[in-house]
Write a structure and sequence with these properties.
heterodimer, A: 63 residues, mainly alpha, rod-shaped, B: 200 residues, Rna Polymerase Sigma Factor, Chain: A, 72% helix, 0% strand
């Protein structure tokens, strides 16, 4: 009886770990589905514009 | 010796920030669901990060820093209400089912639905740590709470999601072409759930 019980618990632990691992993997997939998309052009364009409008060598604000 | 606020030069900052755009988009998507609104949020966060670059300390984690900015915009501008529009299952399905592996779409849809049922604080903790790859300490910084709080949110979120996926049969184990090994796993999973229920 005892043997059976520990065996069952071991299976349960393994199962729990397997499901936990799977959840982690799928969470990353959900997230990486977005990170692997091509970044829309808008982003880099806006960043460049922000950079240019704030010209690095003009310390005075009277542009 | 060490400067109180060591700065990256603008070029290095811009390069690193540009590299984080995919992560800003992914985190924003997890907060507001809808892809278009999420990109608006991610763009705002990127620009705000750029303008705040003097407050970024070189050598610290820029991802955590930028996520903090994004999250603050999200909560301060009441963009939380955007989330409601994300619960449209057809939209969720359309964005999730990738043509490359249509079967996986169902699993991910089930997961997305389960995540949507979590309290906001648990969902974001699970995403930041479980998907975004932040350390507990970094996630705590992003969310403005204690490390222990993040740990317990992540653990409660994991538990809740697993239970939701167990109780909700919508496709987590796939409906068609179920393999014998999977069926066996499912049975063992139920057995495990029953035995752990007895233990407690």
């Amino acid at each position: 009886m005892d043997d059976k019980k520990t065996g069952g618990r071991k299976v349960a632990d393994t199962e729990r770990k397997r499901r936990g691992d799977r959840l982690g993997e799928q969470l990353r997939r959900l997230y990486d589905d977005v990170t692997h998309e091509n970044v829309p052009d808008d982003f880099l364009r806006l960043l460049e514009e922000a950079d240019r409008s704030h010209s690095p060598d003009s310390h005075n604000k009277s542009s | 010796m060490s400067e109180p606020n060591e700065r990256l030069d603008d070029t290095a900052f811009k390069q690193e920030l540009a590299g984080l755009i995919p992560h800003l988009r992914a985190f924003a998507r997890s907060l507001c669901g809808d892809a278009t609104l999420a990109d608006d949020l991610a763009q705002d966060a990127m620009l705000k990060a750029w303008h705040a670059r003097e407050s970024f300390q070189a050598g610290t984690n820029m991802k955590a820093w930028a996520f903090t900015i994004l999250r603050n915009i999200f909560y301060s501008e009441k963009r939380r209400s955007w989330r409601r529009s994300s619960l449209d299952p057809e939209v969720a399905e359309a964005t999730l089912v990738s043509p490359a592996n249509p079967g996986d779409g169902l699993d991910l849809l089930a997961l997305r639905n389960a995540l949507n049922l979590l309290p906001d604080d648990q969902r974001e903790a699970l995403i930041l740590v479980g998907a975004g790859g932040l350390a507990y300490e970094e996630a705590a910084e992003v969310c403005g709470c204690a490390v222990g709080t993040i740990k317990s949110r992540v653990s409660r979120a994991r538990k809740a999601v697993m239970e939701l996926l167990d109780n909700n049969e919508i496709g987590f184990s796939g409906d068609s072409g179920i393999r014998a090994s999977e069926a066996f796993d499912d049975i063992m999973g139920q057995a495990a759930a029953i035995s752990s229920a007895h233990e407690s």
